[in-house]
Amino acid sequence: MLTYAVAAVGALASSDAAEVYADLDRPVWAPPAWLFGPVWTVLYGTVAVAGWLVWRHTAGRTRRRALTWWGVQLALNLAWTPLFFGARQYGLALLDILLLVAALLVTIRLFHGGHRLAAFLLVPYLAWVCFATVLNAAIWRSNA
């Protein structure tokens, strides 16, 4: 539920995202705006299931550390949309997404120690966030 709350807040913060995205000088390999919604819907689902698996199948310090980092990466994810689309602060958004990648790597490592499937479920999310990081950097460079 927390994952979809983050998604909902992100959606509210990016109500004009399609227009902002269309106005940007983007690289030729940038995906079309319509692709982001379906991709994020699936990814938020895997993030939620991964968190639930760790919460359900681990205990004590392992669960606490893993879910703390899961929360950190969700908070960084939440911060990116208003930075990028709302404030149009592409450099700050890039810093945020770089921190998100780092937090996600820590989360995957900790999830792997508690529930391997949960860690595996975060790998597509990591791949998309890494792609988004490169796209964010290209947009920042082209629109600075």
Molecular structure report:
The structure is a single chain. By secondary structure, the chain is mostly helical. The protein has seven helices and no strands. It is elongated, with a radius of gyration of 15 Å.
How are the SSEs ordered, and which strands pair?
Blueprint: H1 2-13, H2 17-23, H3 36-57, H4 60-86, H5 90-114, H6 116-121, H7 123-143
Helix pairs in contact: 1-3, 1-4, 3-4, 4-5, 5-7
Number of separate helices: 7
- Strand fraction equals under 5%
Tell me the total number of β-strands. 0
Q: What's the mean pLDDT score?
A: 93
Biggest sheet statistics? none
CA-to-CA gap between the ends?
36 Å
Element-by-element helix/strand order: HHHHHHH
Helix content: over 70%
Low-confidence stretches: none
Q: Helix/strand-derived class?
A: mainly alpha
The gyration radius over C-alpha positions equals 15 Å
Note the overall shape.
elongated
In short:
The chain has about 140 residues and is mainly alpha-helical. It has helices spanning about 1-15, 15-25, 35-55, 60-85, 90-115, 115-120, 125-144.
Question: Any key phrases for this structure?
Answer:
144 residues; 7 helices; mainly alpha; single chain
